[in-house]
Amino acid sequence: MILSNVLNYTAMKPISFKIEKKMNGLGRAGALTTPHGVINTPAFVTVGTKATVKALTPEQITDLGAQVVLANTYHLYLEPGDEIVRDAGGFGKFMNWNGPTMTDSGGFQVFSLGAAFGSKVGKLSKVTQGEIVGGDEIEEGDVAGRLAKIDEDGVTFKSYKDGSEHRFTPERSMEIQHNLGADMIFAFDECTSPAASYIYQKEAMERTHRWAKRSLEAHLANKEAAMKQGLLGVVQGGRHQDLREESARVLGAMDFDGYGIGGSFDKDDMGTAVGWVNAILPEDKPRHLLGIGEPIDLFGAVENGCDLFDCVAPTRTGRNGTLHTRDGKINMRNAKFVRDFTPIDGECDCYTCKNYTRAYIAHLFRSDEMLAGTLASIHNLRFLVSLVDRIRKSIIDDTYEALKISFLNQYYNK
Amino acid sequence: MILSNVLNYTAMKPISFKIEKKMNGLGRAGALTTPHGVINTPAFVTVGTKATVKALTPEQITDLGAQVVLANTYHLYLEPGDEIVRDAGGFGKFMNWNGPTMTDSGGFQVFSLGAAFGSKVGKLSKVTQGEIVGGDEIEEGDVAGRLAKIDEDGVTFKSYKDGSEHRFTPERSMEIQHNLGADMIFAFDECTSPAASYIYQKEAMERTHRWAKRSLEAHLANKEAAMKQGLLGVVQGGRHQDLREESARVLGAMDFDGYGIGGSFDKDDMGTAVGWVNAILPEDKPRHLLGIGEPIDLFGAVENGCDLFDCVAPTRTGRNGTLHTRDGKINMRNAKFVRDFTPIDGECDCYTCKNYTRAYIAHLFRSDEMLAGTLASIHNLRFLVSLVDRIRKSIIDDTYEALKISFLNQYYNK
Questions:
Q1: Are A175 and A240 found together in one domain?
Q2: Minimum Cα–Cα distance from A94: chain B residue
Q3: Same domain for A339 and A296
Q4: Is residue A79 classed as helix, strand or coil in its secondary structure?
Q5: Contact B87 A339 (CB under 8 A)
Q6: Which cofactor does it need (chains A, B) (predicted)?
Q7: Which of A282, A398, B81, B280 is 20 to 30 Å from B316 by CA-CA measure?
Q8: Is A87 in the B-facing interface, judged by CB distances under 8 Å?
Q9: For A12-44, what is each residue's pLDDT tens digit?
Q10: Do B366 and A80 touch (CB under 8 A)?
């Protein structure tokens, strides 16, 4: 009877993870099975903030090799509202994306974008354009503390759109994410400022752990949702090794379907900090490093045991004209591309590189044509998706170190 | 020898037109053969102002059933410059569109957009966004006369982008259009204001006839271009029957490969005015009515002998949220669509209607998402392309009158 129950419970798990190959150290290649298909890991997750990967159709997302789309709970809650998305059949169906889906907890945006409303923090002005601001671009200082009011039960914050007041609790985040209906959802967490003190980081982390427990309970209490959606806990702890390790231990002991790693890191040694966490987290569950998309960070994260990454940078910087090539980034608004009839990257297999010249793309950018954003996003996403796919293959083929050295030397022109 | 030369000359003609079925009166269904494929007429021509149909890939243009793309000479001359487009292999190759192509003469924009620079004419402010302004939206009054300086040889005008001075002559328009490389190009014409006097209209029309002759001579003098590109003369004459008829007679006697019908008409009876012209133009050559896209005008133009139409309205109004349905136009920003989980038009076979709900499209518009413009443009273009295709079939099947009555009654809710 007891065994049978365990088997049933296991069989009911909406997501499962299988390690296919381990590297020396923490890195691994695996397969993450979701109700909407298998994600081969490591995998780069495409961000579709408001149930749309900006400027792309779902067919274009599929064609560029993306396996999974992550939408932002905070944004969809505010617009069009999670109940409309629920009535549409979940955000995947709403946007006509049939593959695996994720939503984040809303925590990051509550603290970063809530802080932005009415403030004059430089980079946060971008949020008025209606898009998530990546973790590595935020410099909220302690403004968040003033505009997002945190108490033990949850957080009260202001909409980045109109300043209206809203409240998220772990239970509310679960309810909203159940309505949004993604295959993988995240426990509600507090995302602290990198400038916060050690004492505050510890206090916030401990609150995040209590919120994680409440998120898990609220998730499992909704049996229908728990059968269809996997819940990932979010490790916090800032830049402090002892806090990161404690967070991994506490959350690792809870029965999450996987783990997110959130918050800020020392950019010069992200891999090491991620390693502190992944050495402790259960090995048999997938790990998602939130908000990372710079090539060198992807290598550092993979070899330290991360399986999934998401970042708005490839689409956002792409729309501004910054494109990845194997020799580093180039900006298409540079005059030298106006008569350059070669592709963005001669070795790239994306739709953009197969069909268009730098001269044409430069023309589209100079003319502020919408197609510029589409072609640039396809290329940049394909570049990162393809890079992570190559990293995956190199793990399986035991050629990871060679790939890492050759790619990084060429990309960063060392 | 003489016969052989005539045959060679005919065989060398880059475009040919065959009437497949005639209606009572002037209307007809036909097939227009170009170096890049056959256009079944009547056909709605998709506008790709700057060598891009705004927000769409060429695959999306093909998928929605568009047969031909028209780019604007004035815009491509200013940006990126016709020599870059020539070096790219022509505007079709530049934008990765392999089907038939057209460029206009540049005349309409020289007079309408040249007039816009530095002026405060209401609707013309739109041009700073870098797109052609449709003929029926222009209210240039006599501003054009001040900013576009016309002489017998040509016209000096200011760039709508930076106010820099430029000059077009018939010979220069041909040179630029040869560089742009479209299958069908237009003779350089003067596009007068609807407010201009009869005397000025007549004077301008006679100048347009002299420019037409010079355009034809300049075109034929470039033997390589003349083998690949067909030249269409542009009938002018404003709203005056005698001028329109005279223009049709004079140009009809010149050896053009087809004809454009330009300038302004009385919107309430466009069909009649078009009929004056088409009753005189050679029957065996295609006729393109420039800048028309309202359903009732398409019917009026077809039954009065037009074969081709182009208009920016479906993409421009689409990007603003105005979408065609069989019951007339709707605006997706209207609150009533926020929870409407039906397609834009339940009978429409376009990609947008097959895959997305009004609620999703309303969400994209409210969120200012780029995909809104893409999905709206696909739908509106498909709506008009499909309507003209149905008109064509109805001509062949002798069911034109029934289609006209049922469509117009439903669309205009009569």
A1: yes
A2: B360
A3: no
A4: coil
A5: yes
A6: Zn(2+)
A7: B81
A8: yes
A9: 699 999 999 999 999 999 999 999 999 999 999
A10: yes
